[in-house]
Amino acid sequence: MNSEDVSSEKFQEDWKAKFFTIFAGQSLSLFGSSLVQFALVWYLTRQTGSATILATAALVAMLPQIILGPFVGPLVDRWNRRTVMMVADGGIALATLFLAGLFLFGVVQIWHIYVILLLRSLGGAFHLPAMSASTSLMVPKDQLSRVAGAQQTVFGLVNIIAPPTGAVLIGILPTQAVLMIDVITALTAITPLFFISIPQPTGQKNDNSGQKTTYWQELRAGLSYVAGWPGLMAILCMATFINFVLYPASTLMPLLVTKYFGRGAIELGLTDSLLGMGMIAGGIFLSIWGGLKKRIVTVMLGIFGLGCSAVIIGLAPANLFWVALAGMALMGLMIPMTNGPLQATLQTSIKPEMQGRVMSLTHSAGIAMTPLSLAVAGPLSDLVGIRTWYIFGGIACLLMGLAGFLIPAIMNVENNNHPEDTEKAHSATAVTPTMQ
Fold first, then answer.
1. What's the CA gap between 55 and 12, in Å, rounded?
2. Domain limits at 287?
3. Does residue 151 lie within any of the structural domains?
4. N or C end of the chain: which has fewer CB within 10 A?
5. Nearest to residue 342, comparing CAs of 292, 299, 285?
6. What b/e readout covers 94-108, taking b as 16+ CB neighbours within 10 angstroms?
7. Alpha-carbon gap, residue 41 to 112, rounded angstroms
8. Is 173 helix (H, G, I), strand (E, B) or coil?
9. Structural domains counted in the chain
């Protein structure tokens, strides 16, 4: 195993081959994880037919990342991020391997699946911020938007390919065999990390007295870092609210297709396919184009586009289902245009040694809105109609996208560092003699 530390500058001298080798392994692992998700949902559906069981499984899979996310970030920033990724992927693979054994010997129970979902989610809580924070050190800043576009393309491909592949495999293979595919793909993610060193942040790890900072000091520092940066705080609040108003759209779509449009399973599958194809198209376009020079402008335009797509779906007449399909394709197209540049903006604006903490906080805040948004959207849609939520969420995104252009803290987030960083930079400038 190559354990030699490498600087960000050294890595970026020949970054493409090394980064995309890691990226390819991670993408295959994502595909394997999606197959496991499909296989377990299908098993629970077939064995119990209980919506409560399925909802509980979904909640169990979210809880570690919601509750532990903010506490995981400081550890990601303290520890070697490559090691974190390897241990997280390896732990997820071992948990899945154990579950495959339970299926093989016919002793699996529902609570076993809950425990494995909990462990897999715990591994994801460490892996996601570690990979995201490492990307900013592996990839040149001017290429981050393109890389984010490639990542969004992979997400779209997985959304399209994994469900039908899982359905075919479940039909011809036992569940334990499908689970083993995830173990194999996890190995493809871990193996490159044995040979490729990932740059580590070089930020200050000592307090004012010269002592090594404690975990709790770094946790407080991360929270203060976010709270003390108005632009970053505004972006995080905006991302959280968007998740709140738009996440229920995917959950409510089956009811919209069947009850309002009067269509069936084929048409419902078509909505998912067009969403995925839109994501692929948007991701490819972003990876080639790279977005506008000022990334945050692309983000705001993407949010505006998301709002337009939701409104189109909500206002589509019952006899014009193709209008809703167009709205789904537009939504898929706008997801990479929003998420890709936003991720690149955070990666370039946040200090490398703080990124684990900020990324974990961002992810936790976003998914924390999921159960709350579903709890609100379900009863409200039953009361005033399913279409109302799409129209309400769409208008909220439209207004948010427009409002972002009027908030200087948001529009200048790429140019204005954290207040403490700016103050230090000004102090350094004041004491540095001008070269003649």
1. 44
2. 227-416
3. no
4. C
5. 299
6. ebbbebbebbeeeeb
7. 14
8. coil
9. 2
